[in-house]
Design a protein that fits this description.
This protein has 2 domains: 246 residues, Aldolase class I (TIM Barrel); 66 residues. Helix content is 45%, strand content 14%. The protein is of the alpha/beta class and 326 residues long. The structure holds flavin mononucleotide (FMN). Flavin mononucleotide binds next to loops.
């Protein structure tokens, strides 16, 4: 059973969300997943308000790129200045017509938390509240917040913060079941996510962390009572996970394995879209980070993958991938 998910005024087709992932969840990847089905909502990677509003630059344009079929799309911004965050949300609303805006309060990277942004806001609930209030008041679309369960095990502030956020115009909260200090070590804590669900006073909470299969999504929904599930790393190399989870949980279908042919077709189409987005001359280099995610299921050995990662010409990489993987 898949619950239906309403975020503010947006009724999602499924309650399965693609996590924001810097360097990965660009237009090229999102469009591929949308073609496969099952995903109810995608997010951009976290965006810096100043870079968004500055204008110009190929990299910025690629980060902001989207298209008519790339909907619904949430735009994630990060920062700790309520005025700047509200200005950026407004700018995005005026220039990109986002379906919703998401505020990052979970990024654990030191260069982000060192400036008081991302997960550092979990230690500063007053400021987190001011940011959420300012952004929610600035735009006519739903605003969501993405949290971790707290800064560290001694400061599991997410339930209290969720209760506060519910009163300041936030339409949904996503919670990753790790602390900021944990980064990606250990396991995502479903019990801690359940505490946030209970504290959030009726606004939908989306559970996130370690969903690698339809069964993991089912367990997340059942053990936490969350309203939706967000999938990150489990979608890298397995973009079928959304469709598989929908088929399995909604229709009780047994998930058949994805053939190598389909995997290769997806990979090549992804490479082509990367070329269209960043320029054909840049695609092979940018695609290096994707190869480890696709290689094993395509039967590509580690040494061969390392070789493939050296190719600089996109057309050459394309030919070699075809030759290696079939
Ligand atoms: C490479 C990478 C980049 C990420 N970038 C972002 C980001 O831009 N914004 C954000 O809120 N979370 C980001 N995250 C965290 C994910 O959204 C997600 O919360 C986390 O990976 C746990 O979910 P998972 O176990 O399904 O991957 C990133 C994670 C990874 C692995």
């Amino acid at each position: 059973m898949l619950p239906s998910l309403l975020i503010g005024s947006i009724q999602l087709e499924t309650c399965l969300l693609l996590a924001p992932m810097a360097g990965y969840t660009d237009f090229a990847f999102r469009s591929g997943i949308r073609d496969l089905g099952g995903m109810g909502l995608a997010y951009t990677e976290m965006l810096n308000p100043r870079s968004v509003m500055q204008g110009g630059g190929l990299k910025r344009e690629a980060l902001l790129a989207t298209g008519p079929s790339d909907r619904p799309l949430g735009w994630q911004i990060y920062g700790s200045d309520p005025v700047l965050m509200a200005e950026c949300a407004c700018f995005l609303w005026e220039t990109r017509q986002p379906d919703l805006i998401d505020i990052n309060m979970g990024c654990p990277q030191r260069k982000i938390t060192g400036r008081g942004d991302g997960a550092a806001l979990l230690r500063n609930p007053g400021l987190a509240h001011r940011i959420a209030t300012a952004v929610a008041a600035a735009v006519p679309v739903p605003v969501t917040v993405k949290l971790r369960i707290g800064w560290d095990t001694g400061q599991r502030t997410a339930p209290g913060l969720a209760a506060e956020l519910a009163s300041c115009g936030i339409s949904a909260i996503t919670v990753h079941g790790r602390t900021g200090k944990q980064k990606y070590t250990g396991h995502s804590d479903t019990e801690a996510i359940r505490e946030v669900v209970e504290a959030a006073q009726g606004i939908p909470v989306i559970g996130n962390g370690d969903i690698m299969s339809p069964q993991d999504a089912k367990t997340m929904l059942e053990t936490t009572g969350c309203a939706g599930v967000m999938i990150g790393r489990g979608a890298l190399g397995n973009p079928w996970i959304f469709q598989q989870t929908e088929d399995s949980l909604k229709h009780g279908k047994i998930v058949p394995p994805v053939s190598r042919r389909r995997r290769l077709d997806f990979l090549l189409a992804h490479l082509d879209r990367t070329g269209a987005l960043y320029g054909i001359d840049n695609a092979a280099k940018l695609f290096r980070k994707w190869l480890p995610h696709y290689a094993a299921a395509l039967g590509i050995s580690k040494p061969r993958m390392v070789e493939l990662m050296q190719y600089r010409e996109t057309e050459k990489l394309r030919l070699e991938l075809k030759r290696t993987a079939v």
